[in-house]
Amino acid sequence: MNPLNLSVETSSPSKKFWLMSQNVAVVAKYAPFVVCLASGKLDEDAFRLLIALDAHFLREFETAYMKAEEYADDGDAKVAVSNLRRAVSDKLYRLNNSIAQDLGIYPTQEVLTNPAIMKYTCFLSDISDGKINGENVTDQIVTTSEMTRIAAYTVGAVAPCMRLYAFLSREFEPFLSLYGSDRPYYKNWMNIYSPLNFEKAAVQIEDLLDKLSVPLTEEDLEVLQKVYLQAMKLAIEFLFLQPICIPSVVPLSRLRDPKNQLFIFSDFDSTCTSLNTSILAPKSAYHPVSDNHTNQMSSLEIKDPRVAISLEYTKDYEKCIETLLPSEAKTFDLEYIYKSLEHLLELEKWANSKDKESGILMGMYINDIQCAGEHLVQDGCARFFQKVVGQREQLNVDLHILSHRWSSDFMRAAFSSAGCLADFMIHGHEFEYQRSVTRGVIVRRIESSLEKVQVFKGILTQNCKDTEFFSVYIGGGTVSDLLCLLEANVGIVIGSSEVVRKVGKRFGISFLPLSQGLVEVQREAESYGSSSAWKARTGVLYTVSGWSEIHAFILGIEPTPDFKIQQEAADF
């Protein structure tokens, strides 16, 4: 899924490919090089290398466009490719005669051994030479339309770079303008690589790609898609592998002292799951208790009680939220928020009691509960925790899942199917069983948002009495996570819940995209290399579009071959 939840059903190949790769493109915002550049803290040596590499990229683009121009059989397409080639030549001239000379850089003499740029430029050279999957398809060309296919592939290998850099330039332009203003070489660079110029170049090459794609067969379009996605992957890897001479605040796993324990907490519902499971009542999990177990309930009878309870709870919950909110926005005061959220306590306990009174929690087989929980954890969440578990000793990390609505058996099954249960502490309700069938009795570990934050703080206090620690809390779209989010060193909100934002803003809580927060922290950190730059209880929460951003923030880029945009890219 792309982070904006946009459909990839479009007649424009360039738009389709970009939408398919957006979920990974956002990861590029977390490259240490990009964060340092946006913060204005990129050292001059790293900036000099950036200019040299830019010049090398431009020369490779120029060469690729020359080849594409030869292969294009349409007159208009040839003109479009020629215009792009001239634009690249002009940009290279400006780069050489402004920034490069000011910094004493002579890109034509620069020895480039950067493995990331070599991977991309070799890939681009192969594609523009007609080498696809190790096979030289130019030997098979007998018609002019087949020549156009090579031109399309070549443009498809350049287009993702332009779109990615246009995206990043637009995201960080306010920071570059603000923080780079005191450095002349930043100013000159931004004049050449402004968001407007990047967007113009990206649109031009995307229009050309769409034009060249018109005569392609379905098979050709599949190859073009693979070329685009692989080029995007290599462009992002290039950014992550750029050297910098100052400590970066990202990824978190390298920033913090491994001697200090890292705690990662996460909510379950709508955070780890790809859907709201608060009304999930799978038919297979419910069997009425009787001597011979022959009575069977219909799916409607099974589902209706839970749905009715959920709808009633949601309606009362919204009313309660309105009553506890201050009439106008207040300055952030965490103690005031604690007192205000006490009003939710009785409602949250009521919802849990209704589950018991309805009888829907009686007569469930433990095997069916476990089956119902399987495959609920979304892929990005599962991959993240699998990676964390694999590096648990190096990271010195404790993992905890907290829920005030779900049973531990259900959540254990969910993470067991994701392959990382053994290294988790699951905090939820516990059913009492008789012969593997629920008796309708529940041992409630967490019943409200206040009890949830008490468990959160209790875990930290119990494990870190005399040692330093760092905590990350990941929450979804419920107000019940607010206190835990605010108490953590870094509170991360997945998605954009209107209720959470409304409540938060009325209480003086700020919501900042995590990638932008990283730029601020990089800029303001008093001691580079120290995770003390992140402060708890400040009233600032960080937003992300999905788990790929959390992965990049905490662990960095996923190493090849796991770092994939789509499975098709791995075939290249």
TrEMBL record:
Which residues does the UniProt record annotate as the domain Thiaminase-2/PQQC? 32-239
- SUPFAM superfamilies tied to this protein: HAD-like, Heme oxygenase-like
- Please give the CDD domains that the UniProt record associates with this protein: TenA_C_AtTH2-like
User: What is one Pfam family matched by this protein?
Assistant: TENA_THI-4
Q: Which Gene3D superfamilies match?
A: Heme oxygenase-like
Show the PANTHER family listed in the entry: BIFUNCTIONAL TH2 PROTEIN, SI:CH1073-67J19.1-RELATED
Protein name stated in the entry? Thiaminase-2/PQQC domain-containing protein
Name the source organism: Platanthera guangdongensis
